[in-house]
Amino acid sequence: QVQLVESGGGLAQAGGSLRLSCVASGSISSINAMGWYRQAPGEQRELLATITSGGSTNYTDSVKGRFTISGDNAKNTVYLQMDSLKPEDRAVYYCNANVRLSFSPLVPPSLRGEYLEVWGQGTLVTVSS
């Protein structure tokens, strides 16, 4: 009922920048918060940053000062500006959203108005040294 689609991953040089985007679509009534995670090979998925619908943000220490999360509520979109990239930032980056499903007939009755955690498919970021 809800899809998240990330874009903007790719190859960057160390010290360079990339900007990730994530668009939520589907039977959405509201979005409480969106966030970015990443998962490096052999590692657990790591929370990087979150933003609420009111604009409050939080960052994990490893990206604080280098990455900036922002959102556009009207477009159901969240961004992650990544600056001063390091080789260790190489990972698959995932978008996450806490959404409330709408009361659309497209949504199964038992799920209408329910809150759901939704994940994107991930986008690969590679940083060369």
Overall mean pLDDT stands at 96
Number of helices: 0
SSE order, as H and E?
EEEEEEEEEEE
Q: Which residue ranges are poorly predicted, with pLDDT under 50 across at least 5 consecutive positions?
A: none
Instruction: Give the beta-strand count.
Output: 11
- Give the termini separation: 40 Å
Helix fraction? under 10%
What's the overall geometry?
elongated
Gyration radius from CA atoms, angstroms: 15 Å
| Beta-strand percent range | over 45%
Main beta sheet strand tally, sense and closure:
7 strands, mixed
Can you walk through the features of this model?
The model has no long low-confidence stretch (mean pLDDT 96). This protein is mostly beta strands and 129 residues long. It is 0% helix and 58% strand.
Summarize the structure.
The protein is an all-beta fold.
List keywords for this structure.
single chain, 129 residues, elongated
Write the layout of secondary structure elements.
Blueprint: E1 2-7, E2 10-13, E3 18-26, E4 28-39, E5 46-52, E6 57-59, E7 67-72, E8 77-82, E9 91-101, E10 115-119, E11 123-128
Parallel strand pairs: 2-11
Antiparallel strand pairs: 1-3, 3-8, 4-5, 4-9, 5-6, 7-8, 9-10, 9-11
